[in-house]
Structures are given as C-alpha cells and as structure tokens.
Amino acid sequence: SDLKLGSRATTTMVHDHHHGDVVGSSVLPHSHDVDATRIPFCTGAPSAMYMAGFTWSTRHRWAAGAALEPPPCLNLYLPHWTLDTDRKFFAACAAVFALGALCEVVGMLRRARVLSGLRARMRRPVVPTTTAARGLRRLHAVGTAALLHGAQLLLGYLVMLAVMTYSHELFASALLGLVVAAAALRNDTPPSSSGGRGASSEDPHMTACHHSG
Description:
Blueprint: H1 2-19, E1 20-23, E2 26-29, E3 43-47, H2 59-62, E4 72-74, H3 86-123, H4 131-163, H5 168-184
Parallel strand pairs: 3-4
Antiparallel strand pairs: 1-2
Helix pairs in contact: 3-4, 3-5, 4-5
C-alpha cells in the first residue's frame, strides 16, 4: 500500500510540473493556461507603498509571456482602504485622477480671485465707508482666501501621497488629472493693457496646484 501511495504522489507531482510553475508555496499556470480572474490581484500584508520602487500594479493582468506573481497589496491613505481587487484599484485610479483635476481647479480659482481683486481695487472709486464695513469686507476676503489656500494644500498633499505609493498607474492617474484640468481651463487671452500694476508677473502656464505662494 505504501508503494501505491508513493507512486500516486509522484504522478501528481509530475502532473503539476507539466501544468504550472512553482512560485513560493503556490503553483502558477503557464502563460497559455493563465486565467486572470483566478489570479489574486495582490499578495502579502498591505503597505502604504512599494518598497522596491515604482511597480506596475496590474502587470500580472496584461503582460504577455510567463505568468507573473502578483505584487504586494497597497493601502491608499487609510489602513482599511486596501486595494486588493481590480475594482478597488481602478476606482482608486479614478479617485486620484479626480483629486488631481480638482487640485488644479482650486489653484486656478485662487489665482483668478487674487488677480480680480487687484484689478477691482485699481478701478473702484474711493468711496467713504465705515470702519465696520471695511472690517467685514476684509474679514470676508481673508476668510475666502484662507479657505481656498487650505483646500489647495489638502488636495495637493492627497495627490502627493497617492504618487508616493510608487504605483505606475496611480502616478499616471494623478498626472493626467492635473494635465487634463489645466488644458481644459487654459486661458490664452492676452492680458489687458489697462491692467497696469494689476498685471501678474507669474507664469500663466504654471501648474496652479503646485503654486501655493
């Protein structure tokens, strides 16, 4: 009976050898037998970044040739936001794209508000106002500017943290969001000659999300 059991185990090992490659303690099928839906999206304990540097998070899904072992799992922002499925990962890419675009939009709104305020002060006639009215107007202006500045910083740091996961796909999503928003909101209208001192010396093509001055 022991001889039969040994022969049966040897046959099983030979069968597995011809149908897969041993990777660690698991057996991955050869490239012609790969079923992407049966391979886990990621393996191991999740972490906030790929420790080896920039890595393709989905390469084992689309790469031709020999079967690839899935990359380590990633956490995005919070410990329980683990990108361990295709759906979660691509939803994260869409969210990072939106964060990059929104960061660019808020930065441009902030810059446009500063320029419009300068032009308005130059063109507005001097009208006597009470100290209370001036104080309220000043408080409103400072509060709005601080709110926009804080929103821009928050969005910028969220985009930076997504890039620091060292995932090629998340990095590309953040970059595309910034570029698409900048291209969509681009204004090629030349500055008015009446701007005088109100004309800004800043580069009009600077990425607003990264200009926090």
